[in-house]
Amino acid sequence: MGLLDDSRDAPRWRSRRIGIIAVGVALVQLAIVPQISVGRADASGARVSSIVGADADQLGTSWNPNAGISPAEVVNAPDFGQLYDITLPPVVVNGVNVGPGEIYAQPVVADGVLLVVTEADNAYGLNPATGAVEWSENFGAPFQASTINCGDLVPTVGITGTPVVDTSTGIAYFSTDTTPQAPATGQSLWQMQAVYVSTGAEAANFPVAIQGSAANAPSQVFDPVYQMQRPGLALVNGKVYAAFGAHCDMSTWYGWIAGVSTTGALSMWVDITGAAGLGAGIWGPGGIVLDSSGNLYFATGNGDTPAAGPGLGVPQPEGLGECVVKLSTATSALQLADYFCPSDAANLNAYDGDLGSGSPTGLPASFGTAQEPDLLVQVGKSGEVYLLNRDNLGGVDQGLGGTDAVVSETGPLGGAWSHPAVWPGDGGYVYIMTGSPGANSGGSSGELDIYQRVVTSGAVSLNWVADVPNMPFGAGAPIVTSSGTQSGSAVVWDIVRSGAGNDATLVAYGAVPVAGSSSNPTATLPVLWEGAVGNSTKFSAPLAYDSRIFVGNYDGQVLAFGPLSVVPPLGGAAVAEPDTTLGATSQENAVFTSTGPVTVTGVSISVSTAGASGAFTTPALSVPVSLVSGQDITLPVIFDPKVVGGQQGTLTLTTDLGTVSVPLAGRGLPEGEPIAATPPSVN
Hints:
This protein has 683 residues and is mostly beta strands.
């Protein structure tokens, strides 16, 4: 079907919460915010740092070492519980109330804003401390699942993949599926969106329609009607990457990676290049994994598998079905770098046992050895847990006697439809939620399996050591919080569904297994706390941030859990500068009030608007500054506009308790006499 190439045919509806000031910056309640979800430093030059996205970090570990949540300090405290439960406001599109939409994507926090996206093609910016909606945006009428009679995700398909945020610019990127308006000839339009996470305002050069043919196979053309974008997005080397599979395996589909530069240029890569190929969809619910060199990792399901041979350094085969794939982002077009496909890939295809039902997870360096430093875990519907070498994934049938060339292989214990979580402390553990008792194309029920890192003569393996049984199909992907790698500080969090999912529970477990009972001697994880989260979506993962856990559900609700008695020790409000002519300056004060003892150790300002570096400044502050409860600290913020139009920045105070940030905003006016009306109003 025809595709739209003009983004104006996908109208956007905008709503603003009352109380937002004229330049679009909300007055927000501040919290002490540890710096989390930031990528590792990269010696190769690949830009993989200063990014917030799915699964806590670029390796997809779902481990947050700075969330301020530990068994002794928080979860066992008597005041730990629900902080708020808000229902997102609905949106009316073309006279139809599409509701807030279901929340499948993991929430994201950046620039002091909780970003939530939904299947109604809505995005919301919330105050993470209070749940107040500071801004909301709609990106068009969502795609109707009934159009292709697919019941996997109903009733509409909008924004499913977890956004990625470039914290150096404050811009969030995510993909939307909309039903274009007349005179469109197609029924679906996929677009890459880019908005400032602090206000929801659209960034320049966006949205970008995802369409056209693949650079590596020009005969393959992207079909938006049957494609589905589910994995979390990745940002590296100035490009945002989104992976696509198919709705219900319908029509002729392939696995696609769409790369959109931060300036709006589109490039496409496909994993099936032969005319007879089919499948190889990329649809696992985790995010695309990145390593420190900027390589992308993902898994495929279905499709033609390469012939026996190495995967490292060979030309791309016609099909990469049932494989873990590594792509290089070092050049303008994606290039195949390596792959692994299990030797029983043909059998997996025979019963729809997708390897790509689970997403890969890179393991931290502490899991590796000098012999095997860089590791990756993959599990799919077969239940086999593959531990792979990221530096040489293994190709096809390259082990002894035509077996798999893997670091280790464990299982099968049950098929997986989500992705693992990792705890590097206490010797190293990996947690995998299964959805079936064995190799099976359909889910029924499973368990949370726990694997421990074991090293023998320099070789690493993952040994099954415990489980949490009786997990209904659709239970969420686990996450881990801790105080660094301090022994005993880790908590495993998971969203456990009922059979229908309408009375799901957020459960906190101790991360280290304990002995089972006399009736069930199998080792398990101790339950530390649990709370209701309503009607959950399948395989969804909670978010840990600033001593809180956030959950989005099927009914468009956002719930937050944490210590009920926590009061931020330092708070303030956004700074809105008056409209200022280029060449002139203006000044407003940022006032912070302490609610407890706190010491300010540094002040910094960043500017997120392109071309406006230096637009906001503040005089040097002699630090440290120690405050007691009720004391104010006032910082003058000077606005010197560098460009015409809105300019945004962030003022950050570093304290002994973390960092505090407030948004800055102002608007630059052109030099010369402005146009004015006289009189200013007419009766």
